[in-house]
Amino acid sequence: MNTVSTVSGSDTLAPGARPTGCTNLKLRQLMRVVTQRYDAALSGAGLKATQYALLSCVVKSGPLKAVELAELMRMSPSTLSRNLQPLLAAGWLQTGQGTDARSHLIGATPAGAAKRAEAQRRWRAAQESVNSTLGPERVQTLHRLLDESLALMTA
User: Fold this and answer.
1) Is 97 left (phi over 0), alpha (psi -120 to 50) or beta?
2) Chain centroid to CA 38: how far?
3) pLDDT at 152
4) N or C: which end of the chain has fewer CB within 10 A?
5) What pTM does this model have?
6) Is residue 23 a part of any domain in this protein?
7) Model pLDDT, residue 13
8) What's the confidence (pLDDT) of residue 102?
């Protein structure tokens, strides 16, 4: 059954009605499909979507502490640590000395910056595919709803 509902006002709830279904399930289902599309595109660069996002964040933000990177990525320190390992092992990211003996900074290597540039072309193709499938207006609306929801859930 392939039904597409709009994100316009035509699907508004009647006064007093409550949403039905599990928001978590619906988000996970969408994430699986979207992640598969990005993973397929990025596989040619040897990256998964999660790895590309992490590498991009480090390349754009410059060397930063793990706790700062975890905050930017909105992930737990343990999840960050697991996701960093393949990027460190590949030589795309490196850890360096921080401002004191106990702190370390995570930065991109030249090979990491080059890998990100290679993967960015593939990421762009995946993004264009999503835009084409969903339509630019729906993607913009989805981004807005996700940003607003994330702000509300983390307030």
Assistant:
1) beta
2) 10
3) 96
4) N
5) 0.83
6) no
7) 74
8) 78
Dist. CA 54–CA 37, nearest whole Å: 17
What is the Cα–Cα distance from 85 to 66, expressed in whole angstroms?
12
Q: Are 17 and 87 in contact (CB under 8 A)?
A: no
- Does the pLDDT at position 20 exceed 80? yes
Residue 42, judged by CB atoms within 10 A of its CB (0-12, 13-18, 19+), counts as buried
The one-letter amino acid at 82: R
- Tallying the residues shown for the chain, one arrives at 155
| Domain assignment of residue 34, yes or no | no
Number of domains making up the chain: 1
Are the C-beta atoms of 72 and 56 separated by less than 8 Å? no
Q: Is residue 85 part of a domain?
A: yes
Question: Does the pLDDT value for residue 1 go beyond 50?
Answer: no
The whole domain housing 61 covers 46-153
Residue 56: which CATH number? 1.10.10.10
- What residue ranges in the chain does DSSP mark as E strands? 64-65, 93-97, 104-108
Is the model's pLDDT at 9 over the cut of 60?
Answer: no
Q: Using an 8 Å Cβ cutoff, are 52 and 116 in contact? A: yes
